[in-house]
Amino acid sequence: MMETGLFVRKAQQSDILAILEIEWECFREDSFSKEQFAYLISRSKGTFYVMMEGDRVIAYVSLLFHGGTRYLRIYSIAVHPDFRGKGLGQALMDQTIRTADECKAAKITLEVKVTNAAAIALYMKNGFIPAGIKPCYYHDGSDAIYMQRLIP
Length: 152
Description:
Layout (H helix, E strand, L loop, with lengths): L5 E5 L5 H12 L6 H9 L3 E8 L2 E10 L5 E9 L8 H15 L4 E7 L3 H9 L3 E6 L9 E7 L2
Parallel strand pairs: 4-5
Antiparallel strand pairs: 1-2, 2-3, 3-4, 5-7, 6-7
């Protein structure tokens, strides 16, 4: 269950430094750049949400719409390590599923590192199923599991 005092809102350019901190803590060499986040927040075909505790960004999810399809892709999702285990990942998944419903998506897709057991468990709990492997997807040569959730 998510703690009270936390809320989700659309990301703003002023959130980028906090997002970069979470990104580095979670993904290190696989991190996106400041420029990539600026694009995702302001100009991409998608939407970007941040989880706030007061005025601090503590988690985020970046969603992209695949052009010409009804697919919504979870491009990046992360919770600051200091705030894990509090239901924030689930809250961001709930927001993602609401967004998919609102935009009438046919399915939600994502890639996840094969060793990220906590994320895989969260996705499976939310109806995602493994649909393939993407070899050498990450900076260290690790594979990714391609997962999808069909929207009824």
